[in-house]
Design a protein that fits this description.
- The chain is an alpha+beta fold and 586 residues long.
- It has 9 helices and 7 strands, in the order ααββαααβααββααββ.
- The chain is rod-shaped, with a radius of gyration of 62 Å.
- The two termini are 115 Å apart.
Length: 586
């Protein structure tokens, strides 16, 4: 047949070969094992097995012997049916049912031998009133029917037990599949929760970043507003100074015009009286010459004043340009900080996307592993149960690892909190050390000042006043301080010295070679100057003396604000004095 199929070259070669193969396999699969007798089992077609009715019962009747009177109780019991196997038979197969026979007993007793069918006896049997033969075969027939019924019941119970076992196995498989599905759903839920927590954390970080940016913008706006306000105040002061200079210029011009008119009248009067009083004319000429010298001196002084005003304007312009440069530098730093934060945010987003991609890959790998385990479970249930146990152990291990991770995260958070506290304590200790060092420096300065006062031969020569030890004193040795009132008061004091044209007092003296003096000015709560101390001298006694005069000329510097007055009685402000086109305090 195979050769004939192979040599067939028509278009139906493949369907014909497939049909023949299906028929052969169907025939082989339809064969079943049967037979309950001795010997090797044989093959039998399934349609030969009758499960709903019994085969025809053949009965052989023999005549009873009258000489033998064997009591019914003396009859031997029929042999017990053969024991059935403990293993359940498959539902789709069953043993072949042989026909039961009743051969003639060799010893005269009616005993039936042979195999029995698995169905009940026929419904119509001859009763005792209709049976004209000997009762012994009738008893054998009843025993045969009884044993047949018992075997049928036993096989029914076995079939029911096999069906229950199959249902139990199916139920166990269904429950195992449900457990796997629940485990998969639980893993997916945990993954979604982690993704949601990561998303919320990212949103929280973005909100914190936006809040920080808003705060920084507000701070920059406040600084810009303060700079604008200060610039407006400076411009107002310059405008007032300009108007004052214009008023002085107009007064000088009016005076010059009046002086010229008076001189013209005097000259005409001198010409008119020239013939009479020559000596008086000479005196008038000398007086005019003296007045001309005085006018030229006034013009020179006015030119010097204008030069000073121009220098002051140039210095103020330089200060404004420096402030603009610093503002540009600060904006550039802010832009760099924003770019750095944006790069950090993009890096965090990239890491988050990589982590999510890894999580998706891991979920896909786990899903593929679960499908492979399910396929193996369909092929072999025991291996599936072991795989389920392994997966349960893996889930427990994952839960344990998750708990360990959370515990490690808690420990890490606690460690970071302790580190933050330690850092705060160290910063506090450093600040305390700096404060102690500053106090020690102040103590050394006070000791040096006390030594200087003791060593001074003439206390009246120094305008410094002794400091009272019982007064509450505050110090500011730089531009920054946590006390905002103190910073504002020191800035106002510096502006008053810089803006009131005090440079004219030291213009000639600072032309000499000198160092930049560092001066500490102690101011009382009412704005008066308590003392002036030179931390670093300029090296020129005239400059040091003029600095004292400048500080004294601008006193008082205004009373302390209420909040500052509640804290201090005296404030010592240290500044470095710089002389270029004006006086600048740094």
């Amino acid at each position: 047949m195979t050769t004939a199929i192979a040599t067939y070259r028509g278009p139906w070669r493949m369907p014909l070969a497939l049909s023949v193969s299906l028929l052969v396999h169907a025939l082989l699969l339809s064969l079943s094992l049967g037979g309950a007798g001795m010997g090797l089992p044989g093959f039998q077609l399934p349609w030969k097995e009758r499960r709903l009715e019994a085969d025809a019962l053949r009965i052989l009747l023999t005549q009873a012997r009258p000489a033998v009177a064997a009591p019914a109780a003396a009859e031997p019991k029929p042999a017990a049916p053969p024991a059935l196997p403990a293993a359940p038979l498959p539902l789709e197969q069953g043993p072949a049912v042989p026909v039961a026979t009743a051969p003639t007993p060799p010893s005269g007793s009616a005993r039936a031998e042979g195999s029995f069918v698995a169905v009940p006896a026929p419904a119509t049997l001859p009763g005792p009133a209709d049976d004209p033969v000997d009762p012994a075969p009738r008893h054998a027939e009843q025993d045969t029917q009884r044993r047949t019924a018992e075997q049928a019941d036993e096989r029914s119970r076995q079939a029911e037990l096999a069906a229950r076992q199959a249902a139990a196995l199916q139920e166990a498989g269904r429950l195992e599949a449900q457990r796997e599905e629940q485990a998969r759903q639980e893993a997916a839920r945990l993954q979604l929760e982690r993704a949601e927590s990561a998303r919320k954390e990212s949103e929280r970080l973005d909100m914190a970043r936006q809040e920080r940016e808003r705060n920084e913008a507000a701070q920059r706006e406040a600084v810009r507003s303060e700079a604008v306000r200060q610039e407006q105040a400076r411009l107002a002061q310059l405008e007032a100074a300009r108007k004052e200079a214009e008023g002085q210029e107009r007064a000088r011009q009016e005076l010059a015009q009046a002086e010229a008119a008076r001189q013209e009248a005097a000259r005409q009067e001198a010409l008119r009286q020239e013939q009479a009083r020559l000596a008086q004319q000479e005196a008038d000429r000398q007086e005019a010459a003296r007045r001309d010298v005085a006018r030229q001196e006034a013009v020179r002084q006015e030119a010097a004043r204008q030069e000073a005003a121009k220098a002051e304007l140039a210095r103020q312009e330089a200060v404004k340009q420096e402030a603009a440069r610093q503002e540009v530098a600060r904006q550039a730093a802010a832009r760099q900080e924003i770019a750095r934060q944006e790069a950090a945010r993009q890096e965090a987003a990239r890491q988050e996307s990589a982590r999510q991609e890894a999580a998706r890959n891991e979920a896909a790998r786990q899903e593929a592993a679960r499908q492979e385990a399910a396929r193996q479970e369909a092929a072999r249930q025991e291996a599936a149960r072991q795989e389920a146990a392994r997966q349960e152990a893996a889930r427990q291990e994952a839960a344990r690892q998750e708990a360990a991770r959370q515990e490690a995260a808690k420990q890490e958070a606690a460690r970071q909190e302790s580190a933050r506290r330690e850092l705060a304590q160290r910063e506090k200790a450093e600040q305390e050390a700096q404060r102690e060092e500053r106090l020690r420096a102040i103590g050394r300065q006070l000791a040096e000042e006390a030594a200087q006062r003791k060593a001074a031969p003439n206390p009246a020569a120094s305008p410094s006043l002794p400091a009272a030890s019982s007064l509450r004193r505050g110090w500011m040795f730089g531009r920054a301080d946590p006390n905002a009132d103190l910073v504002q008061y020191a800035a106002a004091m510096s502006r008053k010295i810089e803006m009131n044209m005090t440079f004219d007092m030291v213009r000639d003296a600072v032309k000499q070679a000198h160092a930049r003096p560092v001066v500490t000015v102690a101011v009382r709560a009412d704005g008066s100057v308590e003392k002036i101390t030179f931390v670093v001298s300029s090296g020129v006694a005239a400059i040091d003396k003029l600095i004292r005069e400048v500080v004294a000329s601008q006193a008082p510097y205004g009373a302390f604000p209420p909040a500052l007055a509640r804290q201090y009685d005296v404030i010592e402000i240290r500044r470095t004095w710089i002389f270029d086109m004006a006086i600048r305090l740094e």
